[in-house]
Task: structure prediction
Amino acid sequence: MQDAERLSFNDAVLLVKQGRQAAFAAMPVFGDDDDEQTETAEGARVFILLPDEEEGWQLRFIAGPFFSAAYAANDVIPREEIPDRVRELLFVPTHCEEDWFTDQLQVLLGKLTQAAGIGAQMPDYAAQAAKGAGPEAVFPIAFVGAGKPR
Result:
């Protein structure tokens, strides 16, 4: 797997504004299992910097469980509300298309990493059978960690 150039938030914003491409950072979400030895990621939080015609750039936040067609969050975060902990993340330059936001989370991550040139070791999740959720399915905000004390 090739090493991708990792950029600070500010450098990633400059890249997005100047190069009209995207950059992303992802964080795994772990369950509440007490056995830390066997803990596996159950989902992820993904922050995607995207070009924006009016503002120059925007930050899209997507979070949810793996292997589900429903997201717990799929929002654009206003600039004044971007948390400091997001500004501390390292971002990877990539390519992103709007229709990718309808994919399952692990498929979205696979596409982002492939477009960044770092996805050689990612499984082909797009070819696996999908578990569906109806449009009424929602996930509690606590799933994405917003309700947990730090």
